[in-house]
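Table S2 (continued). Query chain:
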Amino acid sequence: MKMKMKANMICSLVLSLALLVGLFPVMPTTPAHAAASYSGAPQKLSVPPLAFDESKIVLTWEKPDDYYNSAVKIRDYEVFRDGVLIGLASENFRDNYSYVNAYMDAFYGNLSAQHHRVNILSFTATELAPNTSYEFKVRAVYTDETRSDFSASLVFSTAPTPTVIDAAAQGATYITSTSGANADYKIRGANNNATIIKKIADNTAAIQAAIDAVPTGGKVVLKGSGDNANPYYYPSGSLFLHSNMTFEIEKGAVLLGSPVFDHYPRSLLVYPYSQDIRTYGLLNAVTWDYGSLKNIRIVGKGAIDGNGWKNTTTGNGLQTQTAADPTPGSAGVSDPTGNGWRLPNYQSGGNITVDNKSAIDSDSVLGILAADAMWKSRQDKTPNALDAQFYNSRPNLTVMRGVHGLYYEGLTFYNPAFHGIVNYQSEQIAVNGVNAMMFDANNGDGIEFGDSTGITIMNSFWDTGDDVINFAAGQGTVVRNLTNKVASGEGRVFNNFLRNGHGGMLAMGSHTGGWIGDLIAEENVYNSNEKGSNGVLRMKSGATTGGGIRNIVVRDNAVNYSNSTVGNSTIVIDTDYKDGNASTAFGPESEQPLTFENVLVRNITVSNAYIPLISVAAPVSSVYALSPILRNFTFEDIKVLSYVGSGGNIAINGMSDVTFRNITGLRGAITTTNSKNVTIENCPGTTNRTPDVLNGSGALTVTANTYYATLEWPAIGNATQYAVLVDMLDGYGYQQNKIVASAGAGTQSTGIALRPNTSYKVAVRPETTGANASYGNLLESTVTTGAATLGVSTVSTSSPSFNVKAADITGISWQDFKWNAVTDAVYGIHYYELTATPTNSNHATKKYKAYFNNASRAGYSLWGLDDGVTYDVTMKAVNWIGQEGPQWGPVTITTVPGTLMQTPAWAPGSQLTVAGGRWIGEDMTITWDERDVTDYSNGDTARFAGYRILINGVPVDGGAVQANAKPTVQPGQHTYVFSPAGLIPNVPYTISVEAGSEILKYASGAGGLSGSTGFTGTENTELPRNQVTFGKWTGHGPSVTRTFLATAPVAPTITTSSLPNGIFGIAYNQALAATGDTPITWSIESGSLPAGLSLEPTTGKISGTPTATGTASFTVKATNDAGSSSKDLSIFTIMLSGSSSSGGSGGNASLSYSVSEGTKAENGSVSYDTNKATAGSKVTITATPKEGYTLNDMKVFDQNGKEVQITKNADGTYSFIMPEGGAKVEPAFTKKEAAKGTPGTSDAKKFNDVKEDDWFYKGIQFMSEKGLMVGSSDSSFSPNQNTTRAMLVTILHRLEGTPSASESGFTDVKADTWYSDAVAWASSNNVISGYGNGLFGPNNDISREQLCTILYNYAKLKGYDISNTKNVNAFTDGNNVSSWAKEPMEWAIGSGLISGYENNVLAPGDTATRAQLSTIIQRFIEKGVK
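Corresponding output:
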């Protein structure tokens, strides 16, 4: 492994010497920990997303997999870098995360020694060199001083030194105080001080300009005073970050949120459906083209202050300290936040007290920015909006949407007007060492993850006004997630200290539609002093929200309560959650019930439990949805160290498959209500319990006639009843038919009515009831009833009053209906069938089956409707034998036209054409093809907005354009002239184009028939205040990367005046020279070099071995972006004295050297016209492949291993000039394309060298399915193998249907080859013409210009349109295109069949691989080129 090369080698030497003399500790020899059959090593050593910079790398790991099985516990971890011990995790944590560490020390120093003491699972390696690789390993240290095995090693590199932009250089300013003359910065609306309002707006623009100026990999910095107790305040409104950048706030700097609501753009929709308009935050990075924003770091030792609420009037606006809080005297270190170990206490307002419904500030007004937002939203009066919607207009601290790669580190986050750190539809997010001080700001969630995955939260301090760490997964049908994939979660939460927060360290819900899960919370400490606090786990949702929460692990945490009037429970599970400020009208996720499942809570210690340990209320049924399910929960190794009053108990209701194990210190016995399969083991005060044994053997026998079935089964265990379940195989699963009481120990039986001529699955589930209610495995069978004619329906004909839930409530894709239960005294009602028939035939009819599983059901939510469509809805009841009742309705509904979901899409391969822009002073013209864009807008709810131009991901009009629909180029235009003035010369810039849609309407507030509101939708006719147009832009548009010169480019001038003579048979090497800007491309304009020599276009080097004597005259040309120059030169090749080109004697030339085969070739052989030859004489090689193989490559090397130039002859042989010392020949043979007519596989997945995420996968799949190409073997396709001329002609021949033709006449195409018929057909139809010497070269690799020419000829044969062209001179090497290929190449480029490579290179002579060919032919066929 090569690491820290060059200068770092010196460091390695010094380090080695230091180790010898004992300057650094080496890996100590210590006893190994007995790990039994486990690995015993820390697992998954890694670096969280973006947790590194030019001098630092943050490491994390997971515990050894024998952690819970080892009697000896881990006390710490040792970390090694490049084989040298660099420290213990605990000491590193103390040094780098001193604020969190001080709180943990105070916790353990003042509370019970029995508390679980957390292990630190991270290490921050500092003082590293930029752009350097390091190797890390970790091992555990046990309390008996033994060591575990080492983890797997991790090699990771620091970042290069970034370009740094000081915001002050762009005009950003700061204030040093927010009192006195600057007091208005902390008053709602800036106290209407016009001067300060303008200063904030100007400062926002200056900081934004600094952000926009940051190049890829760079960072913008807010400089600080160095003292967080006396900081510089940078007032600002909304700022917008871009990809591949760092935003740093130094120690002693505060980004202070403007108190003016108008400084925050208002066009944010939390979900892409039915939602009030919300407002962007202080820091933002937003896109609706998810993943197109990436790699954003928000770091520093300063702070972000949202300026949301006033401080409380008691305690100087500070919280009362608890006995377990650090103090200036006890912490041992100074408070790095500058607060003297005191925590701020903000006003806990609501949607009335926030502004007191007044425009005037007073003591009764509790908000600052929150008040200004609320009051101005009240004045706007958005339709369908009330206090709840107005209240949700408050800005968050941050809003990130659609970002891949986010990193937050080191900052202190204060006082949000709404929520704190908010992340939507983003992935790969790490939060490390932040301090959230938001208590008791109303709704002040610490951090939120909406539909976000790949999350790490570590080493941070949380003191919040609402949920600490919240996960949400949306609501309604539109958020249904992928199978076995959660919409939000997939992460770890560890080594955090939580001070206050309603929701605890994991608060999940209430939006659960797309599922939340796959989360681990471990090694955290929670010391709550909040009235209303819960604890480590809060799961909340409602029956109609759908989805659920699954796969949650909460382990190894310590909890203490310091307030006697705290909230619900340490662990809260709530299926009846209601949010008083909810503003989203939504429908059910699907017909599946809300489900919480697969939860493990392990090794938790709790002291001063004023509240229940676990509280689970009965699942709350809904009129319109199935009853929620709570299943598969395990609680074990939990210690209640002390409780107060009625705290410290466990009470659950309505759960199944629950285990309580080793829970000590409870106030009383565990109570379980309406719960099944409960296991209780070793919980003092509660009798052990195991589920009844109900899994006996035996088969279910079903005997059916026309519409009746008899079921028989053996008695199972001590079952007291059996549930009979029926599945119609209609996708809805089992439905309960009846409950049958046990008949004792003998055979059990019952009869059920079923519809005739129908197949079913039938099951019986054994159950017991009472305090130890249990259920066993299903006994299952299948049955098909016989045919019969049904009599008169027994379904009641009484009107059920079928109607909508409320006449004015309709969503974009749902509608609630209600009705009275229909009866059938004979057979019973099986289900209700609802049909939604659209009045517009362009939309599909929807059918639903409503199965009622609880007594509360009295309706159904239609879901998956199309938005903006009128439907006639009918309902009828169906009994168990299939008889139908009367059809009720129709009831006519109209869904709300929804917000446009899609962003415009660019076609694959879309590209920009660039002219000019070679230097900072020269404008660049970029052009794109509008036909490459697919627009999904309908002109009603959205319209096409046009295009915007971005430089390094920043709109040319400024970063704030992220938030609106402002285009750079209007629809119908496709050219933009860009000035590089102001850019940094000699730095690469990426110029890209995005297409966008402007949202005209959105489904506001609570929905309703009038709920689709114009986006300007207030009582004003113009855009109100800060509400901007709303655009959805593609983030994946075409782009080019350019480096601009500082001055006008200088054309080359060739300075080489003459060239040295060459010597026959002796290697020649001479570089041409020229002045002018680089890069320079060299070429031979006329004449030719001596035989055996060639010119390297990029270096200007003439090299090779002359094979003939005499004078060769030629004109050499040097070209760059600014122009070209030419010069006439010549090389005279001489023969050394005594040597002869015919092999005469004299000097070394008289010696004969051997030619031999290097590595023995497989699947073929080679022969030579002579086995010995003198240096400088010609040797000819003949390659003979085995049957079914072809020559893929031929190389010759001299005695020193240097490759010798070879020439491919027209007859298929190869020749070279014998070098001094002899030559070795190395051929390579590969399996050739299958014979004509051989069918290709229809599934590219069978090729082990083709993966679904390869760029060429679709092309290969397409060609295989069409039978146009086949694999190189049964399991391989060889995508990177070059394509021969015969292969292409064979593909076109197959595409044409393999017509017959007379022989081609080419002397090198034998009649019995696999390609002979194809070549004959192509030749007779002028698709090919060969080399002009009677040769076709079937086994020659095909070049890009040959490929285009053959396709062009075929297009002409077929009569396709060949008028769409693009000049090859737009490419830097366009003059390298052969004259005969110029017209075909221009057609292929204009038709989108091929494009240039990076740096605008066309490379006409490059060979085409099988992967490239498959993609080009697919485009040729699919684009129609007709």
